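Troubleshooting: if your tokenizer reports a length mismatch, compare your output against this known-good record of 630 residues.
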Amino acid sequence: MHKKRGQVTIFIIVGIILLFSLALFLYFRRVAAPLETYEVVPDQYVPVQNYIQSCVGKLSRQGIILLGLQGGYLDLPERISTNPDSYLSSSPQLKLPYWYYQGESRIPTIQEMQNDLGNYVSKNLVSCLQDFEPLKQQFAIHPQGGITSRATIGKDAVLVQTTYPLDVNVITASETARLTTFAARVPVSLRRMHELAADILHAENKALYFENITIDLMALGPGDPPHGIPFSDMVFQCGKLSWQKQDVAESIKNRLFYNLPRITFANTRFDPPADLYAANNLHLDVTEEDYSDLDVGVYYSKDWNFLLNVRPSKGNVLSAEYGKGNAQYLSYLCINLYHFTYDLEYPIRVTIRDEEAFDGDGYDFSFATPVMVNHNQGYRDATGFSVFDTPEESDAGYCEQRGTEETVIYAKDAITFDDLRDINVTFSCVGTFKCPLGVTKPDGQVYRLRTTLPSFCEPGSIEAEGPNHIKTIGPVSNGLSTSITLTPKKQVGFEVMKRPLINDLLTVPQPLAEGEHAFIYLTTEAFPEFVQYKQVPLGDGSSPEEGTIELALGDVTYHMDLLVVDQDNNLLGGYRGNWTPDQYQLDQSSTLTLYALEQKPRPVSEEAQALLFMQLENATMQEKLKPVFR
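Known-good structure output:
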């Protein structure tokens, strides 16, 4: 009895093993590259079979290409096709869906892709066959049923089998044959490419790879205006730092455009990173599977939608908090302090390439996903710019809100009273919203600008600036014409000379020693926006204009702060005072010499530095150190 029970148990175990083996066989048969199953037909009907199978193969290849271009979709779900925010569009016909949208995964399954491909072949087969026109001289072909197609996506190839029952007669013979099944095999690793793409997206959703790379790229390099991307810093520099939002956005786009394609993926085929930064920051480990025969590329276009919000900002301007030191002793210490947080959203395209697919022609499979940053942190909870805090001030659309009456704007020279040409004119509302109006140009016998004014802000003001005139702000007249007067300016070269103070006596001027630097900060109450900050010697890559100072050709008083430090930024001396240039000397001269008091010995203690600052406030000392034209 026990022996029989043992035999039964063995049979059960063997049966389970056989069933399990059969299941594995069927699975791997379905997943592995399938073999074509051609229907065996008499030789005289082979031309008909080949003709139909060539169409099945052609349509299969077309459908697979479209699957790759549209992220695994041939027929997009309505929730995607009707929502332009949920896909990338490279043409009116092609839409690349986001595989991740508003917290929802939209990765098509292999089964959905197979269904789409089969339907695509069936739907287009009749058109491809062209009513069997090339075969009509030899065969009479009569369809006997509808068309159905089944696609199987394997690891190394895609098999499409089409059922289309046909009665075929050779015209010169009486017999009839029934042809039913047609097959095509396309060599492409579509299943593995889909699996790798899904691995990349799942890793991104978990680790926020692309968001972190974005933040790292934004933080690279200095944040100095105009083209820097500012985050947080304290800058000891005179003159308030500010950035234009569109300049910051363009800088971010440039860094993304040039650096995202440098991303490589472990366990895929890639060239070794070109530098240490790429090796440490742009090499991602997203899968443990071996995809060493597949390439992966990440792409971003500067033409794609790019949403950006920066806090704090005022309209399109990002500004630092600015201040100076104690008015009596530390007025040379100029401080810019800023901390900006960014919200941004932009799409990327990830493309996987099989170079050996399509018999060596190669094949690309792509998907898209948004990259999202909120308050300088990556997030994947939802998409849509509505989740961001938007600034209160924005000129978006306001500049297009114009009045109906035409206004004529004249720009006049403050000395000659002549009308000026090529003057840029901007409408300003409380210094926050700014709308470019145009440029003064010849109009009849005068130079002027005809335009309409924005209606959202009344009365507003006019800003005018030209290459040879100082920027001037004036009110908008109530009438149909407005005139604004601009003061001409002149550029002069400059040098800085030290005058050592020894035993309360100023000695012979001396040039700056090696390693010493001078910083000049020039302002005037006559033109509130006139601020010049200069450095000697000039920095690397400085333009010729940075070696000159702009001065108004008119009776203008300037306040000048000049600071001299050694190579370790230890204070050596300087100049502080008001100065009104002689207009005749300014007109006749091309160089300005600036003098700085140099305390000997160097003031080291706080008490010695305080005494130096008191010397600079001395009216007699200020008179002796006034700038001189040469």
